[in-house]
Amino acid sequence: MSGRAGKKTYEGKSITVTFEAGRCLHAAECVRGLPEVFDPGERPWIRPDGAEAERLAEVIRRCPSGALQYALEGYVCRPRSRPKSGEREVRTAPPDRASRTPALSRGHSSPLGPRRPDSFG
């Protein structure tokens, strides 16, 4: 384990986990997902070799803040970043789904089709 500027690194045999305390929202997704790896009552509180690397990576990807990250087999994998204060997260549909989703544009159309001026009485 090594620390720098609030980010700590926990090295395992096949996966390395980093934790940035300042970003953590304390949602406890990690503790509920793999209590045998993430135990706040122990030191070190993250034990990467406590579970299969793939399962650990899956739980880390559920971290809502991005405070947890991992490196697996030479690749650094980061969860999507959360929006900054005052920004709203915008999610887009995958291309195959987007083509089946009706487009909505403020005040010009609805899921039932385009608005007609004469339909508002």
Please explain how this structure is put together.
With about 120 residues, the protein is an alpha+beta fold. The chain has a domain at about 1-75: Alpha-Beta Plaits (2-Layer Sandwich). It is about 15% helix and about 20% strand. The protein has three helices and seven strands. The protein has helices at about 30-35, 55-60, 95-100; strands spanning about 1-5, 5-10, 15-20, 70, 75, 110, 115. The strands form two sheets. It has a five-stranded antiparallel β-sheet with strand order 1-2-3-4-5, with helices on one face. The model is unreliable at about 90-110 (pLDDT under 50).
How is the topology of this model organized?
Blueprint: E1 2-4, E2 7-11, E3 15-20, H1 29-33, H2 53-61, E4 68-72, E5 75-77, H3 95-98, E6 109-110, E7 113-114
Short description:
The termini are far apart.
Features:
121 residues; 7 strands; two-stranded antiparallel sheet; Alpha-Beta Plaits; alpha+beta; 5-stranded antiparallel β-sheet
